[in-house]
TrEMBL record:
The modification N6-acetyllysine is found at residue 606. ATP binds at residues 384-386, 408-413, 497, 512, 523. Belongs to the ATP-dependent AMP-binding enzyme family. Keywords: Acetylation, ATP-binding, Ligase, Magnesium, Metal-binding, Nucleotide-binding. The gene is acsA. One of its GO terms (molecular function) is metal ion binding. It catalyses: acetate + ATP + CoA = acetyl-CoA + AMP + diphosphate. It comes from Bradyrhizobium nitroreducens. Catalyzes the conversion of acetate into acetyl-CoA (AcCoA), an essential intermediate at the junction of anabolic and catabolic pathways. AcsA undergoes a two-step reaction. In the first half reaction, AcsA combines acetate with ATP to form acetyl-adenylate (AcAMP) intermediate. In the second half reaction, it can then transfer the acetyl group from AcAMP to the sulfhydryl group of CoA, forming the product AcCoA. This is Acetyl-coenzyme A synthetase. Gene3D superfamilies: 3.30.300.30, N-terminal domain of ligase-like. CDD domains: ACS (cd05966).
């Protein structure tokens, strides 16, 4: 197989923080002397008490314990705002670009300070204290950043719920962490369409207890119901508080945030990240992976509802005193040139997006890109799912004019920050490969039995060592943390991803090997979609698998067995799609629903998903051994009625 390799451009090797020799030297040190290496890195942030204990980690069965910088004391918001004020009070911290191209604004570090203090004071005057949970259900508006940083300032733990989630999903997340306060907006605005956020909160709160206050940001001015004993307008409350708010002193291992993510069960997990290690790691990866230098304009297109938004719109860039762009809209509104016009409008130097967006825009051809200049661009990034080499090449050639390196960054909600990635001044690029481990990261590829595979190989990706940005626990359920990540392969963290290592030691992530699917870079548990389907009165049983999708990476394929006597009609198919959207959110809409009189089960009753995946992939010729099925005949019906014929 001939493989294209892109060398590090000479000017990059010269000006970047890290060149090839430095990468080797720093990586070796990070492995041979982790305590010394990370003690030095900890100095990138300001501590009220500098840590003297660096790493204190156990991956031992029955005693999973992860602590970094544990005697350090800091405040994350202070590090992202206050410490920059002496030098950067008038520098733009956030460029906000609205859904409507005529709307944008620049927020300086001083303004950010003042707004965050106001929001923090609103929370403090409502009795929110260190350790309390606050759920944030906001669109991509500056108030989302204010809310997150306000929580960090007073030591409250934020749980941001993506504004595309349904009232039920929101209620589930509010209940799990028992939030006292919700911060939301009247409505969101995306691609010219309104999203009824406050109404969704009202519906969620009918199913959740313990919420004292709902703070409502006015975004569209649309009509909403206000409950006078519970709901307050942000702009009214903000007018009654000051722009000064002392920061809470936090231990390095005090929680910073919870972020729910999907796994192989129906219940999303509350991934818990803490303060010191997370911030050191987010800041460091942002600097080195994006080769961030003072004065750069940096844009990550993610939503703050996902971890990418936490680490690489907010915490990493702001800890580094950067100018970070926050975009309310979508890539194709008002037209397919939107990303590239925004890059020209704000002179963006570093651009970080997802393969699904690249593939969708690639379908619209080169013209919408080529009519813009993009001369400011220096570096491109990709995250969220494997990027196919065709999309990589297009991104490089058409968007980057063959001039900008691409950093394909592999990581997870659980990892807090980027773990496998090129460094643009150091790493030769291979389209489709996330390339090499970041400092302190030791990947290992194992087979199904846990045997460690050396050299050129394919298997399951584990990490044998901790890094400061690692999640610490599943909120409220440490046993589940161990069960999910440390029980498949004892003594190491299992990522859930398949991976190939090539002859050059480059890593190629092949996708999830568990019951998680990745739809447009959004992580979905097949079990979540299944439980939504079986909650419908006409559905008796459901099985969901992923299938390759040209734009989304993976699509959702649902096999549905109906209750006796229910007719499988087109209308019912549509009704079920709408139902899942309502139960979970639009990102979970099934692309295909196949009515199945029976599902392929083993004699012990386990659904054989391998067979369902092959049928969904339109590969009925390669079903493999079906002789262990309780009733092999069900397969014929499934094959004959498959929905996805090429
Ligand atoms: C899963 C984690 C990382 C923040 C966004 C997603 C997949 C992520 C890559 C990449 C191949 C990737 C993995 C991973 N993934 N980045 N560069 N190449 N796959 O976070 O929702 O926690 O999903 O996304 O399968 O396990 P997440």
């Amino acid at each position: 197989m001939s493989e294209k390799i892109y060398d590090v451009p000479a000017e990059w090797a010269k000006r970047a923080w890290v060149d090839q020799a430095k990468y080797k030297e720093m990586y070796a040190r990070s492995i041979s002397d982790p305590n010394g290496f990370w003690a030095e890195q900890a100095k990138r942030i300001d501590w009220m008490h500098a840590p003297t204990k660096i790493e204190n980690v156990s991956f031992a069965p029955g005693n999973i314990s992860i602590k970094w910088f544990e005697d350090g004391i800091l405040n994350v918001a202070y590090n992202c705002i206050d410490r920059h004020l002496a030098k950067r009070a008038n520098q733009t911290a956030i460029i906000w670009e609205g859904d409507d191209p005529s709307q944008s604004k620049h927020i300086t570090y001083q303004e950010l300070h003042d707004e965050v203090c106001r929001m923090a004071n609103i929370l403090r005057t409502r009795n929110v204290k260190k350790g309390d949970r606050v759920t944030i259900y906001l669109p991509m508006i500056p108030e989302a950043a204010y809310a997150m940083l306000a929580c960090a300032r007073i030591g409250a733990i934020h749980s941001v719920v993506f504004a595309g989630f349904s009232p039920d999903s929101l209620a589930q997340r509010i209940n799990d962490c028992q939030s006292k306060v919700i911060i939301t907006a009247d409505e969101g605005l995306r691609g010219g369409k309104k999203v009824p956020l406050k109404a969704n909160v009202d519906a969620a709160l009918a199913k959740a207890d313990g919420v004292d206050w709902v703070v409502v940001v006015k975004r569209t001015g649309g009509k909403v119901d206000m409950n006078p004993t519970r709901d307050l307008w942000y702009h009214e409350a903000a007018a009654m508080v000051t722009t000064e708010c002392p920061v809470e002193h936090m231990h390095a291992e005090d929680p910073l945030f919870i972020l729910y993510t999907s796994g192989s069960t129906g219940q999303p997990k509350g991934v818990l990240h803490t303060s010191g290690g997370y911030l050191v790691f987010a800041s460091m990866t942002h600097q080195y992976v994006f080769d961030y230098h003072d004065g750069d304009i940096y844009w990550c297109t993610a939503d703050v509802g996902w971890v990418t938004g936490h680490s690489y719109i907010l915490y990493g860039p702001l800890a580094n005193g950067a100018t970070t762009l926050m975009f309310e809209g979508v890539p194709n509104y008002p037209d397919n040139s939107r990303f590239w016009s925004v890059i020209d409008k704000h002179k963006v130097n570093i651009f970080y997006t997802a393969p699904t967006a690249i593939r969708a825009l690639m379908q619209g051809g080169d013209a919408p890109v080529k009519k813009t200049s993009r001369a400011s661009l220096r570096l491109l990034g990709s995250v969220g799912e494997p990027i196919n080499p065709e999309a990589w090449e297009w991104y490089h050639r058409v968007v980057g004019d063959d001039r900008c390196p691409i950093v394909d960054t592999w990581w997870q909600t659980e990892t807090g920050g980027i773990l496998i990635t090129p460094l643009p001044g150091a790493t030769k690029l291979k389209p489709g490969s996330a390339t090499q481990p970041f400092f302190g990261v030791v990947p290992e590829i194992v087979d199904a039995d846990g045997k460690v595979l050396e050299g050129e190989t394919t298997g399951n990706l584990c990490l044998t060592r901790s890094w400061p940005g690692q999640m610490r626990t599943v909120y409220g359920d440490h046993a589940r943390f161990e069960q999910t990540y440390f029980s498949t392969y004892k003594g190491k963290y299992f990522t859930g991803d398949g991976c190939r290592r090539d002859a050059d030691g480059y890593y190629w992530i092949t996708g999830r090997v568990d019951d998680v699917i990745n739809v447009s870079g959004h992580r979905m548990g097949t079990a979540e979609v299944e439980s939504a389907l079986v909650a419908h009165e006409k559905v008796s049983e459901a099985a969901v698998v992923g299938f390759p999708h040209d734009i989304k990476g993976q699509g959702i394929y649902a096999y549905v067995t109906l209750m006796a006597g229910v007719q499988p009609t087109e209308d019912l198919r549509k009704e079920l799609v709408t139902w899942v959207r309502k139960e979970i959110g639009p990102i979970a809409s099934p692309d295909q629903i196949q009515f199945a009189p029976g599902l392929p089960k083993t004699r012990s009753g386990k659904i054989m998903r391998r067979i369902l995946r092959k049928i969904a992939e339109d590969e009925p010729g390669s079903l493999g051994d079906t002789s262990t099925l309780a009733d092999p005949a069900v397969v014929d019906d499934l094959v004959n009625n498959r929905q996805n014929r090429k």
